[in-house]
Amino acid sequence: MALATVLQFSFAPVAGPPTRRRQQIRSSADRQALFSRIAPVYDNLNDVLSLGQHRIWKRMAVNWSGAKEGNNVLDLCCGSGDLAFLLSQKVGLNGQVTGLDFSREQLIVASKRQQLRAKACYCNLKWVEGDAVDLPYPDCYFDAITIGYGLRNVVDKYKAMKEVYRVLKPGSKASILDFNKTTDEFRTSIQGWMIDNIVVPVAAGYGLTQEYRYLKSSIQEFLTGEELEHLALESGFSSAKHYEISGGLMGNLVATR
């Protein structure tokens, strides 16, 4: 596949990267800069830290989306493209997959991965740099939407969910995979211990200690499964169900428009 074919980016004007700071990561710009910094090693770290289990969870998320042959689907906050590639196989050559992310560096990694994949269906993929709270698509445009480990990192989650609702076709589903914020103190302590004693030390080997310390606070500030269900319903979805997976360490929200 020719490089010119693969690099189907649609770039919005973006300011230069913020300078690195040690203060808490709060703003959208802070989070954008973080994911741009970790882009070169993001896939490798996911494999190491989850022992490859993240691939199973992502397949589950894609299956819950209801995407099928010939559909036009969106992988929002697509990162390096894992869910987008799975969706590509689901919808086939007659379908269309858009991977949208606010990190240009993550999209470059996704595009390079696309070049290395031989399956013809991957020609149905395009990568777009954009904002989850201001999607550049008309109402009722997509047949399915996935978000993998992305909603937690959006500052205005309600606005993002309203946008997901807006661009989905009636009766279609959004499938949202992320860390599960539990109210169970024991599981919370296990999750915190794993981040402090496994995730951060491993990330330190890549020079990304501060970046992965953010993970713990982002989970603490995230929504519980019940709160995610309420968020979806308040955003207009007709039904919403949150499923705990992997012993409650992960969760997947399925919301139907």
TrEMBL record:
Function: Involved in the biosynthesis of phylloquinone (vitamin K1). Methyltransferase required for the conversion of 2-phytyl-1,4-beta-naphthoquinol to phylloquinol.
CDD domains registered for this protein in UniProt: AdoMet_MTases
GO biological process, one term: methylation
Gene Ontology cellular component list: chloroplast
EC number, UniProt record: 2.1.1.329
Family (UniProt): Belongs to the class I-like SAM-binding methyltransferase superfamily. MenG/UbiE family.
Alphabetical keyword list: Chloroplast, Methyltransferase, Plastid, S-adenosyl-L-methionine, Transferase
GO MF assignments: 2-phytyl-1,4-naphthoquinone methyltransferase activity
Origin species: Lactuca saligna
Subcellular location: Plastid, Chloroplast
Reactions catalysed according to its record: demethylphylloquinol + S-adenosyl-L-methionine = phylloquinol + S-adenosyl-L-homocysteine + H(+)
Pfam families: Ubie_methyltran (PF01209)
Name by which UniProt lists this protein: 2-phytyl-1,4-beta-naphthoquinone methyltransferase, chloroplastic
Residue stretches spanning the membrane: none
Enzyme class: transferase
SUPFAM superfamilies: S-adenosyl-L-methionine-dependent methyltransferases (SSF53335)
